[in-house]
Design a protein that fits this description.
Blueprint: H1 19-38, H2 41-55, H3 62-92, H4 98-116, H5 118-121, H6 127-147, H7 152-171, H8 176-246, H9 256-268, E1 276-283, H10 286-312, E2 318-321, E3 326-332, H11 336-350, E4 354-356, E5 359-361, E6 365-372, H12 379-395, E7 401-403, H13 407-428, E8 431-440, E9 445-455, H14 465-475, H15 478-499, E10 506-510, H16 525-528, E11 537-541, H17 543-546, H18 550-562, E12 566-569, H19 578-584, E13 589-592, H20 594-598, H21 604-619, E14 623-626, H22 632-641, E15 645-646, E16 655-656, H23 657-692
Parallel strand pairs: 6-7, 9-10, 10-11, 11-12, 12-13, 13-14, 14-15
Antiparallel strand pairs: 1-3, 1-6, 2-3, 4-5, 8-9, 8-15, 8-16
Helix pairs in contact: 1-8, 2-3, 2-4, 3-4, 4-7, 6-7, 6-8, 7-8, 10-11, 13-14
Amino acid sequence: MRVPRGGSDHEPADAPGDDAELDRRVHDAAFDSTAGLTSALPFVMLPLTAAVALFLREEISAVRATVWIAAAAVATLVGVVARIRAGRSRRIGGRVPRGTVAVVAAALAACATVAGLGPWVAADGDPELVLLFTLFPATCSAAGVITCAGRRDLYAAYTVPLTLTSSAGLVSTGEPRLVALAGIGVAYAFAVAALFEVLHRSTLAAIRVQLGSDRLVAMLEAEREALTTAYEQLAASNERSIHLASHDPLTGLLNRRGTIDALDRLLQSRPHHARLTLLFCDLDRFKSINDSLGHEGGDQFLNVLADRLARTIEPQCLAGRIGGDEFVVVLPDHDTATATAVASRLVGVLAQPVHALGREMPSSVSIGVATFPSHGTTSSDLLRNANAALFRAKRAGRNRVELFDGAMQAEREAELDAEHALRRAIDAGDVLAFFQPEIDASTGRIVGAELLARWLRRDGTVVNAAEFLAMATRAGLLEKLTDRVLSQARPHIRRLASLGLPDGFRFRVNLAPASTDRSWRDDPLDELVRGIDPNLLTVDVRESAVTADLPAAAATLASFRATGGRVCLDGFTRGVSSLSLLRRLPVDEVRIDRQAIDTITAHPHDRAIVRSIIAVVREIGLAVTAEGVETGAQADALIALGCVRQQGHLYARALPAEQFETYLLDRLAEGYVASELATDVWQTGELDEGDGR
């Protein structure tokens, strides 16, 4: 039996003036115990009295049996009220109200009265039957000693009506032996009361001991937290010292020493066949920018670019500033192709104009690439060779990427060919609209589908979606691809709507991350919903798509919602300011990113993050859905955390439009059949029950 703590956790239990508070808490705890033990008692009385009355209907008066059952019904009603009041008091915490105690006492008195009426119910019958019914109050009297051990007032409310009612019932028979038994019953009640007093004192003493133990545990916990805080502060101070020694004070990135030390550690810990790529980045014409803005403006310019660089690379990668306008990025586990993609993305990000000292300044960067172990096995070799590649990039026209060994040229040509192939595929209709179902994991019902793009080559092979979508992003084709896929999907969506979709079914459409290029003030959703009922659509937007013009984005999305559409904040665990966007954007739901789902069953920290996200989202009244559910363990974990709307290969892969229509109709048919079977079973049960009557 747990006792709630009250007052200061650091105040000793025997402090002056604490006795009254301690007594109150002991009595409140005793009340909780009694209320919990007796909460089911009223619900037993009515079935028990009805069963006994039915079984002995030939032996007892029908009128008295009816009165007995009615009294049991009243006791049940009072017990329900008492249980609700007691449960609410425990949830609210603090002192138990007197009204609640009175209601629980009334419930106990009502139950005791029902039990005590036993001898009276059988008073018209044989003495043996009366003796049988006398077992009710005798047994209940003994049980009351245990259930009400913590509270004298509740025990009195229980035993007094029990004793008086049962004795009166025995006296009403007029049988001398039964009248004498009534006197014995009163004496028995006093004996049981003496036993109760002993048990009552022992119970209160046990509660006091537990209360003292809880107070001691709280004090120890407070001391432990204080020590932990002091240790964390010391550790934080040490970390700050180490950080200052290895990081650039202007940008917060690693300085030259920190970059080389980190690179050396990575190289020493890696086998000879492991992959690692180094990017040597140098700002183009920074001297002229520094001359135009001065040192303050130049520092601000560098800060902006350093922040962009740090946000663009993955968390496991390293970024450092090793000179005035020179940056190094280390990419562990990246081969030439992936490193080139990162470098190309950096060129695009760092080429965006920078606002410094109220002026918009152009920006660009050249990048040289060197790979371990092909281009060197030490930090100095990699830096030297990457710097040589950087020089060639500068000489070739700046704002570009060059690989040290020259093989980059062939790879870049292949990349350009792939981009041209993608452009031709989009124009030729080889990029098709696929639908991936979304499932309510708690019921198995299909509740929606996501519209996806898949590149089907003429030879029948399917290009990796992540690969060609990244290619489309780099080539600036993502919006064109989205428009083309929507054009293909519209007829299928209208057809499925005409066939009849489940209530609440929606098609999910991803708004291209590059939508910031298409001004929000031009309302890009107008074209998206053309020819489709907005009530069938959910639009996924990422943080990166709205931050450039948040007011216009919020207004456009609000207008879309007003027509019946829904807005989902996608990739919720990936954005750095997603929580603030929940307040600033008109959002109906959030979507947990697949990166968090992948490790939800492996890493307790990731599970805690997902749990917190779901709790926050549901607290403010938004829906939550998850993508990338691949295993049953992931699905079960999400269900346990409160996220039942799920999507992933565990349920179904992305399907062509025709296959998805078949899949949807099959699932709807299965649901209909299951519903019909359930209805038939229910109706059959009703008929059987009626025949039995």
